[in-house]
Specification:
Blueprint lengths: L1 H5 L23 H22 L3 H8 L4 H26 L8 H8 L3 H20 L2 H7 L24 H27 L4 H18 L1
Helix pairs in contact: 2-4, 2-5, 2-6, 2-9, 3-4, 5-8, 6-8, 6-9, 8-9
Length: about 210
């Protein structure tokens, strides 16, 4: 809060606003667009590598510095910065209007932000629910000094709420798809094009993430 107190121009403030208010007006910046693809693509790749049945992918990701790891890193970057944006561009390419393709790309990419966020929520649930019992031990011995403040320092590990994991992940992904579809409608309205290609893109990405997680 120090900058608010000392600013000589009185142009810094802290305000309350609705959640996701930034999405109401789509960005026209390319860097913001690629941040959306980073969120989306990295969640898909991590789900496949860490939760999927492909041992070769895990070995490549874990053996940092090896030849397989360099191939994995190159594929990781290519998917995020070439494949996903390229497919998205192909989808919106035929949406003809007077607005340049670059601006359409940046504006419509805003719709991917909610989907990327909910992809990460669904992905993280796999670890949160599995390791939640460690929280009890950490609360009793937060500094690792051998304390037992609440009598739970030696609580045995066991996965928690595993029966709700798949439904919770499905709910998160479907909720993200609906949220992104609504955002796509708003973004498409700003640039006066149809939101259908963006919604189809989000649906395909959600179907892929569902397959990887479930």
């Amino acid at each position: 809060m120090e900058c608010i107190r000392t600013c000589p121009h009185d142009n810094i403030a802290v305000n309350l606003r609705p959640f996701s208010a930034d999405l109401a007006k789509p960005s026209t910046r390319i860097d913001e667009a690629f941040k959306a693809f980073i969120m989306l693509g990295s969640a898909i790749i991590y789900a496949g590598v860490l939760l999927g049945p492909w041992g070769a992918f895990k070995d490549a990701a874990y053996n940092v510095g090896s030849g397989a790891w360099f191939i994995y890193a190159a594929a990781f970057l290519a998917i995020i910065f070439i494949v996903l944006p390229g497919l998205f561009t192909l989808g919106i390419l035929n949406l003809k209007n007077i607005i340049p393709l670059k601006q359409r790309f940046a504006s419509l990419s805003t719709a991917l932000i909610p989907l990327g966020l909910m992809f990460w929520v669904a992905f993280s649930l796999s670890f949160v629910l599995t390791n939640a019992s460690y929280i009890l031990a950490a609360l009793s011995d937060p500094l690792g000094l051998g304390w037992n403040l609440f009598g739970t320092a030696n609580a045995a590990w066991q996965p928690m709420l595993t029966s709700i994991l798949a439904p919770a992940q499905t709910l998160a992904l479907v909720g993200g798809l609906i949220w992104s579809a609504r955002t796509a409608q708003k973004a498409a309205g700003e640039v006066k094009v149809s939101p259908i290609p963006v919604i189809v893109y989000c649906f395909i990405a959600t179907s892929l993430m569902l397959w990887l997680l479930l």
